[in-house]
Predict the structure of Thiamine-monophosphate kinase.
Amino acid sequence: MSAGTWSEFELIARLTAGLPSREEVVVGIGDDCAVLDTGGPRLLLLTCDSQVEGVHFTLHTSSPQEVGRKALAINLSDIAAMGGEPRYALISLHIPRRCPLEVLEGLYTGLRQEAAAAQTLIIGGNVSGTGAAETLAIDITLLGESERGRVLTRAGARVGDTIFVTGYPGDSAAGLHSLLYPDHPYPPTACERLRAVHRVPRPRLAEGRLLSQLGPQIVTALIDVSDGLSGDLGHICERSGVGASIEVARLPLSAELQALAATLGRDPLAWALHGGEDYELLFTVAPGYEETVQARFAAAGAAPITPIGQITEAASGLRLRWPDGREEPLSVQSWDHFTTPGQARST
Amino acid sequence: MSAGTWSEFELIARLTAGLPSREEVVVGIGDDCAVLDTGGPRLLLLTCDSQVEGVHFTLHTSSPQEVGRKALAINLSDIAAMGGEPRYALISLHIPRRCPLEVLEGLYTGLRQEAAAAQTLIIGGNVSGTGAAETLAIDITLLGESERGRVLTRAGARVGDTIFVTGYPGDSAAGLHSLLYPDHPYPPTACERLRAVHRVPRPRLAEGRLLSQLGPQIVTALIDVSDGLSGDLGHICERSGVGASIEVARLPLSAELQALAATLGRDPLAWALHGGEDYELLFTVAPGYEETVQARFAAAGAAPITPIGQITEAASGLRLRWPDGREEPLSVQSWDHFTTPGQARST
């Protein structure tokens, strides 16, 4: 049995089963961040995530600066996904001997830019060689903070809650498609925007803070869309013990995504439902508070949000509802970086 | 210009030059840990360090369990090197597809053992594939705590201070030598102990706490010996703006190190002075407090400590003093994992 026969989530669950905890660990393994109460004025949020050359990025399709920005952005997104504020970063680089210094300097330029934009300090790190491997990798650990009673997790969704998503899921996956298959005559403007979304996602920090301020009585569950909307909705359902129904007609599809899909003769829905790396926020709102949340986002000039479905009984599982009222099971086809790159996984 | 032409320290200095900081960052980049004052009852210590297959370990010379223990132990040692208490760990694994599940389970068994021994909780992490690379890597971020005013850094050594070291430096490097060149008829008992020290170093957590309790007025500087005694003494001197003189006759050489060196016809001093990965503590004590420190260690049943020299003026640099009174410059020949594995670096 080798590692590659397991999904990332199965492997983590197996390796970390039964690990001890303590009272001060408010949220442990299994959410976007761990949450600690160390007795200070605010709770601590901790997350780590990697970007590995040939798995998560290539230097053919992204500049070193874009790779640096994205490496930090995906960690910032995990802080956003708990409603927290990012504060400090540790940067661990695995650097092949032949890696040009300019690549590392570009990478750090991107890290600095992204850190400055998020008022996050780089306070430490490590560099290591890679031996025989020629693969550049970046591991980032991020510390954030949040107020007591304001941390939002994956675990609080209840039957009847409305499911919302920020922005336009699927854009990143469509951008990646155009990078992997560059020879097609894509519509240039749409293509450039989708590629930019893929190369440097914008972590939804301000939106996460808005949701945190609304609090867990109103915003019952929150996650960022890194594995794909279906996969991340599945995480909420699993942790909350519920099911979910998505209304196809409500899924927000960007004009650029639709334009790209049209030139390829593809269904844009597949990207919106299953494409990974959007780093949009997916959240659930208690019944009766939908307009409150929408008004708050509008007043703050935050990202657009769209209600896309309802939380249902666990027994219903994940379902898609078509405009004609027809329903069908929604299968999770997450992008799993741990299995073969480029190969979607059905579970 | 490629990364491999730079040392780890030169590269970090270049990439992180001029990074912004804030008031709550008590210690930033350049010590064993970053230290944060987040307003809680204790200061937070943060460190991260990697173990990469073929660079820091091989599965031919260490079991997966030993690799797991060491990966956490070297991070625990960084907490010890500030006088802190370890609390929480994040584990990031880079896993080749073909890596057997038993290797990962062995690794995690080692991580669990070492975490339990240090009362440290594993609260999160990440797993990632490695693409085309066949190299297993483990990145660990460790959070610790310490009392305000009790954090010990590399920066406080003053002229006239006495330099101490715990345990027996050189043992790990001698153990590594016997693993890299296994065909020599080594004395079996000595060889086994030295190899065990190399495979699973014991972080000097209790000793770090003792030094922290004595406080920075008595214990003026502290570091752990990861790069080799000469290299890490060099770090203290650089950060403190001082020089140092080591008395050759006082260097504590273990019986096993001497036995191994004798069968090889080698000088055990080179290992003691320049061998890396000892994870002993190297510290400086203000004049007049040497006996206080020794008595405290003896009373606590802590590791043996040995005074090995004096802090001098910066202009003197690092020097070795022989029993006949002769002095010579001590050149730093650190083990630098970032340059070619197995090749010592002279600076």
Summary: Chain B has two domains: 3-146, 162-346. The two ends of chain B are 19 Å apart (CA to CA). Residues 79 and 280 of chain B are 12 Å apart (CA to CA). Chain B touches chain A through 79 residues (CB under 8 Å).
